[in-house]
Amino acid sequence: MKAIKVSIAQLSPKLGDKQHNLQLISDAMIKAEKDQADLIVFPELFLTGYSVGESLGQLAETEDGPGMTEVRKLCLEHGIYAAISFPEQGEGKHYYISSALIDNNGDVLGVYRKSHLFDEEKKYFTPGAEFKVIETPLGKIGMMICFDVEFPEIARSLKLQGADMIVIVNANMHPYELQHHIFSRARAMENEIPIIICNRLGIEGDLDFCGDSMVIDATGEILLQMKQAEGLKTVDMPIDQQLDPKMSYTANRRADLYSKLVERF
Questions:
Q1: Which residue numbers are catalytic?
Q2: Would you say residue 98 has pLDDT above 70?
Q3: Is the Hydrolase keyword given for this protein (predicted)?
Q4: Beta strand residue intervals within 164-221, DSSP E
């Protein structure tokens, strides 16, 4: 059974302080390299902290910006793939909550822009318009960000596009910890696909981030659960495990009956 080693960095970034957060990223990659991890995943908007709406003009950057360039150098230095989230400067005055997948040579393989914006994110960010599956030697990686996990259509679409696993970068806060715990396991089970969900800790203003990062296999079994522990943990995650042939949810779909799902109400 093929498996990859996955590291989850459940940490507390400092709002607006890229240098501090880059040091956290560097320290986490050092530990992940010692654990012989293939892939390390960081939380949503980890490069800058979450509540950056009023400061996007100063903090947002492209995938080739100074902060992201430093992350890319770290991936090359430590020989590791990374999913890192940042506020992306887009075309014109558009900003996106984005997650970049960087390979062990420091190359950006793809950038996913969060498609389902939560609450006040809509005041500052533009929603993305494309679901992303990125082909890598580790497998085909589908990308999601936080609130996306609450919409089953996204994970199903990634599965139908051939994803072997789904990586979710999170900045989920109390009182919504139960939703993401249940939804991430459900997305794994209903699509028979492993899920990596990395949330953060810490407080920003009124927001108290709730952790509970997990690695979940294609049957919904939790392989790694960090609960409220701060730090980095690594686990082997199978990506071609034996599944119950009686389930085969994708094969048993009745797409001819689902037209209501794409109607506007």
A1: 44, 114, 146
A2: yes
A3: yes
A4: 165-169, 195-198, 203-204, 207-208, 214-216
The full set of domain ranges for the chain reads 3-262
pTM, full prediction? 0.96
Question: In this structure, are residues 12 and 200 in contact, taking their beta carbons and an 8 Å threshold?
Answer: yes
pLDDT digits (tens, 9 = 90+) for 192-210: 999 999 999 999 999 999 9
Q: Which two tokens stand for residue 18?
A: 């890229």
How high is the pLDDT of residue 220?
96
Are the CB atoms for 89 and 95 separated by under 8 Å? yes
The two beta strands, 95-102 and 81-89, are antiparallel
| Fold held by 3-262 | Nitrilase/N-carbamoyl-D-aminoacid amidohydrolase (3.60.110)
First to last CA, the chain: 44
pLDDT of residue 260: 86
Q: How far apart are CA 7 and CA 38, in angstroms?
A: 8
